[in-house]
Each structure stands twice: as structure tokens, then as C-alpha cells.
Amino acid sequence: MQKIIGYISVIEDALKATTQKTEPSTLYEPITYTLNLGGKRIRPALLLLANNLFGGQDEDALNAALAIEVFHNFTLVHDDIMDDAPLRRGKDSVYKKWGSNVAILSGDVMLMHAMQLLNKKDHPHLHNVLTLFNTTAIEVCEGQQMDMDFETSSTVCIDDYLKMIELKTAVLLAASLKIGAVLAEASEENAKHIYEFGRNLGIAFQLMDDVLDLYGDPDKVGKRVGGDVISNKKTYLLLKAQELATGKTAKDLEFCLSSKVIDDNTKVERVTTIFNSLNIKKIAVDEMNLFYNTAISHLDSIDAPADKKQVFENFAKSLMKREN
Amino acid sequence: MQKIIGYISVIEDALKATTQKTEPSTLYEPITYTLNLGGKRIRPALLLLANNLFGGQDEDALNAALAIEVFHNFTLVHDDIMDDAPLRRGKDSVYKKWGSNVAILSGDVMLMHAMQLLNKKDHPHLHNVLTLFNTTAIEVCEGQQMDMDFETSSTVCIDDYLKMIELKTAVLLAASLKIGAVLAEASEENAKHIYEFGRNLGIAFQLMDDVLDLYGDPDKVGKRVGGDVISNKKTYLLLKAQELATGKTAKDLEFCLSSKVIDDNTKVERVTTIFNSLNIKKIAVDEMNLFYNTAISHLDSIDAPADKKQVFENFAKSLMKREN
Q1: Which of A59, A119, B35, B206 could form a disulfide with B165 if both were Cys (CB 3.0 to 4.6 A apart)?
Q2: pTM attached to this predicted model
Q3: Model confidence over B31-83: pLDDT tens digits?
Q4: Which residues of B touch A80 (CB under 8 A)?
Q5: How many independent structural domains does chain B possess?
Q6: Are residues A209 and A139 in the same domain?
Q7: Helices in chain A by DSSP H: which ranges?
Q8: Do residues A224 and A114 both lie within one domain?
Q9: Do B112 and A148 touch (CB under 8 A)?
Q10: For residue A248, what are the domain limits?
């Protein structure tokens, strides 16, 4: 993991230097604020790591890594408006601090700045990298729209949900890895495998998130257990339970979701009992393992030295909080 | 003008074919709606015209022309949220029809789609075209931010105002022309002149807009005379009057701007009298002519056959509603 931590620090330093413009300050202050809010910088670090795996030069890939991070932060700035979210990483969101107009326009400029960073130098892979980036950026928006649509839809199925988390989260992780690979002139086959490693890992990670919300150790998860249940969030667990429940169980579940009478703790307790009776946790963990193992098998298929690939497997394990 | 009209029809047809995606419909319906709302399609037509001036192939430039139009429409979708505008081209704005969340995300996808169109094919000028486009896109946002800042600022001067209209309007016209030229492999000198033709013409056009709001024939202008005065909009006329007015005139002007007592018609009448006493109309028209003539002198400097350049001068004249 030492290597990833090294890259994260390179990215932190480069991010500080990337926004040189300052006027109009109403536009650029929120951008600097956002980029300095912190964050794990996982995506750009993976881009650099993938670039290094295939023998690329870090400095060529650094602008692309910054582009990915600026893009990711753009999505957060706009998502916070759409989700009416006052907080981001424990501080005021741009939306809360400056209002939605500033958040819209600063976000727009961040997206444009990401494009600028990708296009900073001319190189033979520019067209391919931009094609992948643009496609991915649009997919991320589609995922966000699906997520918003789900809130008011009563016909969401497991396949829709998996598609949504793939688009909203997994493809950007996948594209980050692939861009790093393409810039290092990796073979098409290798670039495809590293993309699939990221895509499957991203989906597995989101499924784990759903499981941990209800079944995680509250001290480790760092938030209230059952938050998704309380807010009726259409997670993998709930959708699978709705798919499997019949008769009285289905009615009980429906009651818990729609009742305005039962308190939050009772709701979490009763829904958990229903989930347990349907074996939902095991089904979700099995599904997660399927994606995780597919990710690892794509990693195995990459034609590169095993010791250089080990850091990706270690990362995958740490992301899934797996000790094994 | 026949040539421009021909290009506009090519663009209308191509725009209809450009958004093939339809799902999620909550994301793509507003995009199709926006692109079908009409509009003069001036910018993409000028891009094709500039491309043709330097012997380029229309089909290569068409994607770039569409990109410019999609980008322009993206700015309108986001501007309408920021301006709380219910109408766009006489119909419901996306913001009014679907709400701000849909307008934010659809707008984001339109911006990304513009990038996709610019990057549709690989070509030797990709890096240069993208550099110009990205710089321009950011400038347009800076112009919009300055415009919003002006609403609450009491220290706006004429130079700030000229900078704002340059960024918000003129640079996109200029970049459209230059991208057409670059794609046709025009010399750097020629590309520079056509950019400056567009930039100066764009500024002249905005100044004319300010003059016509108060001094135009209401039948021809198509809106209420003095709308800018009624809303205290910081136009060239008002800023110049504030700069020149002293003593009683300055106090009168200040009274008109801040009084909640006088009705709209009296306000327009009194402000017009003040403007006339300060010779504001002539000063504004002189400034406009300065930019217009600079535009034409850049057009004259372009090394291309005079008869092929004539259509640009005719366009400039028609844009300025000049009959001479």
C-alpha cells in the first residue's frame, strides 16, 4: 500500500497547484475550497498505479489523474445541490456555503477544467482517452439520474439497481484504471482486463456498502446502523427482499416501509427480522463475492509480473475491508 | 446570405440525429426538447462558413459545429436555472418544465455531449481545437459569473462591463469561427483575424442590444422599450451615465434607480432625459462602431478572396441591423 499512499501525496500536491485562476473569485473560491476538502484520492492514485504497472511515466499520467479527481469532485458539487445536502466531508457543501447558482457554475467550470487537464498535452492516445472519459462521464450522469428516478419509482428491480451502481460508481473507477493503462501503451487485452477489474470491484464495493449499513459494526462503519432501512432507500437488500417476500412476510415488509407509526428502532429491528427470514444477508454477500471474484480473475488475466499486480489485489482487499 | 441559410438547414437536420440515446428518459427527454426549441443556429453556421472560406470539408467541420450549438444550449439550460427563467424561446424552460435537478443534470450531459462531438474523429488538429474550445467554455462561465456578480455590486465600471460581454457572448462567436478555420488548416494569421472579427463583432452586437433596448423601435425590437432601465440593469448606457453624471444629474439618476415611488413609464422617461443630457446614446453608438469597424478591419486582413469574404460582411451588417 506504500505505493498508493505515495501517489496520493503526489496528487494532493498537484491538486493544490492546478487551479491558478482566481477571478472572478465568486467562481474560483468554491473550486479551490472543494479541491481542498480532502477525500481519499483513490481514483487518481489507481490511474497512476495502472500507468506504472504497464511501465508508463508518472508525469504523463498525472494530468489525467488530476482530471479524474477534478471530475469526481464536480459530480459531488452538483450532486449536493440535487440531494439538498448541507454537508460534504464533514464541512459545508458548496451548495450550502454559496448557494445553488454558485454551485452550478463552479461545478460546470470544474468539468471543463477536467477536460482541460486531459487535453493539456498532445499525445497519440488523446482521442482514445477522451472517448473513454466522455463516455464514462455521461454514464456517471445516467447513474445519478437513475438513482434519483428510483426514489419515486415502485418498479425498480435488482438488475436496474446493479446497472445504477455500475454507472454511478463503478465505471469511473474502471475508466481511471484503463486511462492509466492506455497512457502506458498497454495492450488492448490488458486495458480491457484492468477496466473489468475496476468495474467489478466497484460494484462489489457498493454491495458491501449496502450490507454494512445494516449488518456492519457501528464503530467501524462510522454511522448509525440501518440508516438505509429508516429512509426506505432502495438498496440491494431491500429490493431482493421485496423480490423474495410473499404472503404475510411481504405484507409485514410493506407495513414497515409505509407505516408512520413505528419508531426508527422498531422499524430497523422488524425489517432485519424479515431480511433474516429471507436469508438476504447471505444472498447479498454471495452476489458481492461474485463481483469481487470476477474482479480478481480479470486481475489474474492481466499479462504483467505477479509482484507488480499484488498491490492491486491488496488494494481490492483493503477496499472490501477483507482481512483474509 | 443564401449560404448561411443553407448551413442552418444542414445543422437543423444534423442536430435531430445527434442524440441517439433515450434512457433514462428523465435525462434525455429534456435534451431533445432543448435542441428542438429552435434558435438561430448562428454560431455553428459561422463555423461551417469559416471552414468553407479556407477550403475545408463541411462534413469534417459539422461535428464541431454541432458541438458549439449543443454547448450554447447547455449554457442556456443552466442559465435559466440561475436566472429563475420560466421561458426559453417562448416555451417553458427545462428548469420550469422539469425542475432544477433535471435541468442541472441534463445540462451537464449536454456539455459532455459537446465534448464527445468535438472528439468524434481523431484528426491532427484535435488538441488545438479542444484547447480553444475548453478555454472558451471556461470564459463563457466566467462571463456568466461576472454578470451575476454585477447585480449586487455597486462598483462596476465600463471596462468590467466590456469584459463581461466579451466573455459571456463574444468569445464563443469568435471561437466558432476560429475552429472552422483551424479545421480547414487556415494559417495562424488568418485564424487569428477571423477570431478577432468574431470577438469584436460580438461585443458590438451586445452594445447595440443595450442601445436598442431604450432607443429602438418597439415594433422592430419586439419587446418593451426601456426594460433594462426599469430593472436597473447595469448596461453600457447606465454605467456610462453613472460615470459622467455629476451634481444634480447624478442625484436625479440615483433617485430614479432607487425610488420605489415613481412608476415604470416615468422612470424610463426621466432616465432617458438624463441619458440624453449626457449624450449617452451617441457615446454608446460610437463605442459600438469602434468594435464593429475593428471587426471589419480584421475581416479585411484575412488573406482570402474578397468575394468569399463578402458573406461575412453581409452577415455582420445584418446582425447589426445595418442597412448601409
Answers
A1: B206
A2: 0.95
A3: 999 999 989 999 999 999 999 999 998 777 999 999 999 999 999 999 999 99
A4: none
A5: 1
A6: no
A7: 2-18, 25-35, 42-53, 58-82, 94-98, 100-118, 126-152, 158-165, 171-183, 188-215, 218-221, 227-230, 236-244, 247-258, 264-277, 280-301, 306-319
A8: no
A9: no
A10: 187-324
